[in-house]
């Protein structure tokens, strides 16, 4: 099948392509214009921009905690279903099916669930397999598990840690590794209620810093393309910038990714002890080249916070709106689900402004990633509005009219004039995520790339343009036309597959038998358990 | 071996699937009762969406109570593996299903290896709670049943007096004061919604100063697995119906047992490998069950394999505390529930690509 996307403004920063032209696709792959061949399908992209399919590196779309949030809040979905535009969590589809539909309609073709508990990997992958159209991937959580903490305490060799990380990534079918408030979930089980970067986990003597450094080294040594993905300590606490700064400094030249930096950019100044440290954090990122971050932008309205940072979620229970929550002490980690309503008051306004400060003050679009930490800062369905805020100073000024003036006066946002270009958007949401995750087959429109393509009809309303793509192609198949899904397909979960060390497997089998009274078989699964054809796609590690 | 029947007569499976599809198409208010694995549930929900059915767990009142604890209140929960390794005080609340007997015995006879504790003390709450054989356990009991006992326990733990006697409270309080991580088991089979809420209230109280949590031991592992699968598929737990393409959740309205009793359904589809739990109840019945005989009175019976015995399966495992893959113990050429449900769905006149 030969497809020609004709006459669009092609924006492909990776290949230096910018301007009107055609894009050719043969089956699943982008190809050079074939000489003397007529296309089987021509899509008229006149008046449109043509980009690679977007990639979301951090969105909680499936797994135990996400499903617990659904179970905790059926009223959100119940209210949403018949009146999707006028209810709490407006426009957020709450099911696996809606997740795929809504992402695809916005031109997103790959989404990473960033917090998979390895013990619940099968549950996570079953959910991801039920998300249609798009490709998915997961990051496996490590850093609060007894096995790793014991190895750190017992001064195990780096090679042994690497074997364990490799086994975890391979058996859970992950694309990378995430550490969440390293050591805090384990400490919370010992009734510790706050945990900073140099605090030690009781009985292990391992500090958060040491856990992060151990995992960072293992990820790097294994050639896992995505740097260690770090959810720092002290999320959401005024004064957290110090913790984030300590973590960045600990990178020491090796790549490190810090998640949802907005939640760590709260200063403690002013009468209310809450101020913006957005400019300071942006400057720190600008001057630390080994660091990448995603923002975790806050938008106003009802949402639900979902996190494996169980210590933080426990402390947030009092602010739950509505007044119910779930706190879970898991094997090797934990989790918490706390519904929250971001209001346009002093605090909400400042959170909103801080996120935008990070976007606008971090110079390099290759190192700042577009996220709301869905659904923690806002549902992913708010992305089009955020694109508009980034691309138009006028849109920002209008949005600021209704917000707390006092809060905005504590932020640099009102004075920022930068406007993202379409090329910046293409880098931040396509090219850079592909590079960060090691997905060489996507994120660009060069010959040989996977034919994941998003075509947007240009217009004055930027949010409308990004909300309903004119066309979306996934693996070369036309799946969206005029903002609606017209063809359903099943994507894959992208995974690494490092060869597990046999001695480590034997050791883990003995560990599970002795400590949990269970065979390792209780924690692993065959691909066939997913009951879909080719549920996984393999991504190579760096050599 | 015959594996399908129409009105008790042996037929090819394809004919039975055709008949089932015909009945479902003609039905105005079909209802499904499930007792199946995760893929069976996914396939049943996909079929329910196509024919506008409501679905629920077979004999699902206890599963519904467990789901209601989360949908209405939330709570604090812990994984069984963490209980084994960390709990130095195990409090068994009410009677537990026999399926959990081995796990409870294991927890009662092992000791924690994390958190600095080396012993595990066992307490029982209510007259129906049982300790594993040979395990010494103090029983907390009072007047007025389990929920009243839980209420009295919460009050006493908060330093308030109660009008009713709570036997063995002092021993319990002393153990609690020294405990590093007490864990309370619960199951919707023996604890009502008020009792579940009271228990979570007690755990929330305890967590102001120390750690404590609750171990969910489901009334039915299949029921909880179906609850989870339904939740990611439709946004709702069981007791959900499809009036049109849109799912709706109402634990009273879509309580399938109630719908049948009150004449709101005109066709009943049951998916349960255990044929003993399936019976015709004055309603045309499509029975997908195990066994070599048709269900008496069923319009259509189709034999299905037992998950994890006849075929590999994906099930909720209370022992592991999440969804697990299980290998067939004795693989047999009997189709899974999911396969039969998909076969029926494929024969519907309005058949389309299933979302699951």
Secondary-structure-based class of chain A equals alpha/beta
Secondary-structure arrangement, i.e. CATH architecture of the largest domain in chain B: 3-Layer(aba) Sandwich
End-to-end separation of chain B in angstroms reads 30 Å
CATH fold field value of chain A: TIM Barrel
Number of domains of chain A: 1
- Report low-confidence residues of chain B grouped into runs of 5 or more: none
Overall outline of chain A:
globular
Largest interface, chains and sizes: A-B, 57 and 60 residues
Oligomer: heterodimer
Distance between the termini of chain A: 34 Å
- Mean pLDDT across all residues of chain B, rounded? 95
The portion of residues forming beta strands of chain A comes to 15-25%
Give the fraction of residues assigned to helices of chain B: 25-40%
Nearest-integer average pLDDT of chain A: 96
- The general outline of chain B is elongated
By DSSP (H or I, 4+ residues per run), the number of helices of chain A equals 18
The total tally of domains of chain B equals 2
> Regarding CATH, which class of chain A?
Alpha Beta
Strand order in the largest sheet of chain B: 2-1-16-15-14-3-4-12-13
Helix vs. strand class of chain B: alpha/beta
Percent of residues in helices of chain A comes to 25-40%
State the gist of this model.
The complex is a heterodimer of chains A (543) and B (356). By secondary structure, chain A is an alpha/beta fold.
What does this structure look like?
The complex is a heterodimer of chains A (about 550) and B (about 350). Chain A has 18 helices and 26 strands. In chain A, the strands form 5 sheets. In chain A, strands 6, 7, 8, 9, 12, 13, 16, 20, 25 and 26 form a 10-stranded parallel β-sheet that branches. In chain A, strands 1, 2, 3, 4, 5, 21, 22, 23 and 24 form a 9-stranded mixed β-sheet that branches. Chain A has a 3-stranded antiparallel β-sheet with strand order 17-19-18. Chain A is about 35% helix and about 20% strand. In chain A, helix 13 (about 385-390) packs across helix 14 (about 395-400). In chain B, helix 6 packs parallel to helix 8. Chain B has helices at about 15-25, 40-50, 60-75, 80-85, 100-110, 145-155, 170-180, 195-205, 220-235, 255-260, 335-345; strands at about 5, 10, 30-35, 55, 75-80, 90-95, 120-125, 135-140, 165, 180-185, 215, 240, 245-250, 265-270, 285-290, 300-305, 315, 320-325. Chain B is built from 11 helices and 18 strands. Chain B folds into 2 domains: about 5-60 and about 220-345, Rossmann fold (3-Layer(aba) Sandwich), CATH 3.40.50; about 65-215, Leucine Aminopeptidase, subunit E, domain 1. The model of chain B has no long low-confidence stretch (mean pLDDT about 95). In chain B, helix 2 links the parallel strand 3 and strand 4. Chain B has about 350 residues and is an alpha/beta fold. The interface between A and B is large, with 57 and 60 residues.
């Amino acid at each position: 099948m030969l497809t020609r996307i004709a006459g669009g403004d092609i924006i492909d920063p990776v290949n230096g392509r910018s301007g009107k032209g055609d894009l050719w696709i043969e089956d699943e792959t982008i190809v050079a214009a074939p000489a003397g061949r007529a296309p089987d399908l021509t899509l008229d992209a006149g008046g449109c921009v043509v980009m690679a399919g977007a990639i979301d590196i951090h969105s909680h779309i499936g797994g135990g905690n996400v499903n617990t949030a659904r179970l905790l809040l059926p009223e959100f979905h119940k209210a949403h279903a018949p009146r999707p535009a006028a209810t709490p969590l407006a426009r957020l589809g709450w099911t696996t099916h809606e997740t795929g539909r809504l992402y695809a309609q916005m031109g997103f073709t790959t989404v990473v669930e960033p917090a998979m508990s390895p013990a619940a990997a099968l549950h996570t992958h079953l959910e991801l397999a039920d998300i249609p159209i798009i490709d998915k991937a997961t990051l496996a959580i490590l850093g609060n598990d007894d096995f790793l903490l014991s190895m750190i305490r017992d001064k195990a060799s780096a090679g042994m840690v690497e074997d364990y990380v490799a086994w975890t990534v391979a058996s859970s079918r992950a694309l990378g590794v995430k550490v969440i408030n390293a050591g805090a979930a384990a400490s919370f089980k010992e009734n510790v209620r706050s945990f900073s970067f140099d605090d030690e986990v009781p009985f292990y003597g391992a500090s958060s810093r040491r856990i992060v450094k151990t995992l960072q080294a293992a990820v790097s040594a294994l050639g896992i393309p995505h740097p260690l993905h770090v959810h720092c300590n002290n999320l959401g606490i005024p004064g957290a910038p110090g913790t984030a700064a300590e973590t960045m400094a600990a990178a020491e030249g090796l790549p490190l990714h810090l998640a949802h930096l907005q939640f760590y950019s709260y200063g403690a100044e002013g009468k209310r002890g809450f101020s913006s440290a957005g400019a300071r954090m942006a400057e720190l990122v600008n001057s630390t080249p080994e660091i990448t971050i995603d923002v975790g932008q806050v938008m106003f309205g009802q949402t639900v916070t979902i996190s494996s940072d169980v210590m933080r979620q426990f402390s947030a229970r009092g602010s739950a709106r509505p007044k119910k929550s779930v706190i879970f002490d898991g094997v090797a980690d934990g989790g918490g689900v706390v519904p929250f309503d971001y209001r346009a008051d002093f605090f909400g306004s400042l959170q909103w402004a801080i996120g935008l400060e990070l976007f606008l003050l971090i110079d390099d679009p290759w190192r700042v990633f577009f996220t709301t930490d869905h659904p923690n800062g806002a549902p992913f369905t708010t992305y089009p509005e955020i694109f508009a805020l980034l691309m138009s100073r006028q849109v920002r000024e209008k949005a600021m009219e209704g917000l707390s003036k006092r809060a905005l006066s504590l932020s640099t946002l009102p004075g920022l004039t930068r406007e993202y270009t379409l090329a910046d958007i293409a880098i931040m949401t396509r090219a850079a995520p592909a590079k960060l995750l090691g997905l060489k087959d996507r994120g660009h429109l060069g010959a040989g790339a996977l034919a994941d393509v998003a075509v947007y009809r240009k217009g004055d309303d930027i949010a409308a343009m990004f909300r309903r793509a004119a066309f979306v192609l996934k693996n070369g198949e036309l799946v969206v036309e005029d903002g609606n899904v017209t063809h359903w397909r099943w994507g894959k979960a992208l995974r690494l597959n490092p060869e597990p060390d046999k001695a480590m497997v034997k050791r883990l089998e003995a560990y599970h038998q002795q400590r949990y009274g269970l065979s390792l078989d209780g924690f692993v699964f065959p691909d066939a358990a997913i009951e879909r054809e080719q549920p996984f796609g393999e991504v190579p590690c760096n050599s | 071996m015959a594996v399908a029947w129409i009105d008790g007569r042996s037929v090819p499976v394809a004919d039975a699937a055709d008949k089932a599809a015909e009945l479902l198409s003609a039905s105005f208010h079909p209802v499904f009762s499930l007792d199946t694995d995760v893929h069976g549930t996914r396939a049943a929900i996909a079929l329910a969406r196509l024919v506008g059915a409501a679905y629920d767990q077979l004999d699902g009142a206890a599963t519904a109570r467990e789901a209601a604890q989360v949908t209405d209140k939330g709570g604090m929960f812990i994984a069984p593996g963490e209980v084994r390794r960390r709990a130095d005080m195990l409090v068994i609340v009410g009677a537990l299903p026999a399926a959990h007997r081995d796990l409870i015995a294991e927890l009662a006879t092992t000791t924690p290896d994390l958190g600095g504790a080396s012993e595990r003390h066992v307490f029982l709450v209510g007259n129906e709670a049982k300790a594993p054989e040979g395990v010494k356990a103090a029983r907390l009991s009072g007047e007025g049943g389990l929920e009243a006992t839980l209420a009295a326990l919460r009050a006493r733990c908060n330093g308030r007096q109660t009008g009713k006697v709570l036997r063995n409270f002092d021993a319990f309080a002393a153990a609690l004061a020294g405990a590093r991580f007490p864990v309370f088991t619960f199951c919707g089979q023996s604890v009502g919604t008020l009792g579940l809420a009271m228990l979570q209230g007690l755990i929330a109280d305890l967590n102001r100063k120390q750690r404590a949590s609750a171990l969910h031991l489901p009334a039915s592992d299949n029921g909880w697995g179906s609850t989870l699968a339904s939740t990611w598929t439709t946004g709702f737990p069981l007791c959900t119906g499809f009036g049109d393409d849109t799912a709706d959740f109402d634990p009273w309205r879509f309580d399938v047992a109630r719908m049948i009793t009150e004449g709101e359904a005109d066709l009943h589809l049951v998916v349960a490998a255990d044929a003993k739990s399936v019976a015709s109840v004055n309603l045309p019945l499509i029975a997908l069950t195990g066994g070599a005989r048709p269900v008496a009175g069923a319009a259509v019976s189709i034999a299905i394999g037992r998950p994890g015995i006849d075929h590999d399966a994906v099930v909720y495992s209370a022992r592991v505390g999440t969804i697990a893959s299980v290998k067939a113990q004795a693989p047999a050429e009997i189709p899974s529930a999911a396969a039969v449900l998909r076969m029926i769905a494929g024969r519907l006149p309005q058949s389309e690509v299933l979302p699951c």
